[in-house]
Amino acid sequence: MQYAIIISEKDPAGINIRECLLQLCPFKEINRLESHPAHKYRNCRIYTIGEESVRAENIDKKIEADLFIFATRHQSKQGIHSLSCHSPGNWSKADFGGQGSKLCIAPALKLKQAYLELKKHQKSVQDHDITLECTHHGPYLEKPALYIEIGSTEEHWKNKKAGNIIAQVIMNITEKPPLEDQQIAVGIGGPHYCNNFKKIIERTGIAVGHICPKYHLENLDEQLLKQAIEKTKEKVDFILLDWKGLGKEKGRIKNILNKLNIEYKRIDKLMQ
Fold it and tell me: Which residue of 6, 71, 96, 189 could cross-link 137, Cys pair, CB 3.0 to 4.6 Å?
């Protein structure tokens, strides 16, 4: 399996992570991508790009890889120290790259692996939230992709300890085989930071690809739900519902699932 690690030269967290990767493993320079540096080590290539990562539309047409890993900064108004991961895609209009109402291919097993690898470092960065985010923003690709991020202010983005952790996690998920004996789900409901889905990932043999949060449920129709299933790298076994996190859309979502004859399970029932 070939991996492409994408770094934006405009992203201080990405540059930090790239420096840490180059120190961690003996990457060697290879042919540049549009005048920007590129490096190779085993089955991994690091590509530096000129634009912001969310604007790197169809980069999979320029680079041959089985999985694209975007190593970037994460921004939040609260400025909380964080290490996070998620799948890219838009549940409605494309405010931050990608295409409106289009999702990328979510690698559920590698996303779970990335999150669990991040969690292994929790004790060494107790002032950081290790978190999983819902599917959001661009770019649009037709190859599997995930984001792994340092949050949430410039001071944090340049933190070498955080950069080294992300670098280690990236190399671990590229060197280790996919998780085995996992059921695959698409998640629906809950907040942007997916606390209940995190519990499922940590405590059960379920891996979740795309997650549609509560604030986008009004946009989730039959076609978008089908797309979320089709654009999960692995075959989806069922839909996973954050039941309380469905709010007023609870009945409508349940009706769509019944109409399409799609199996679903409730997190609250699974966690009893």
Answer: 96
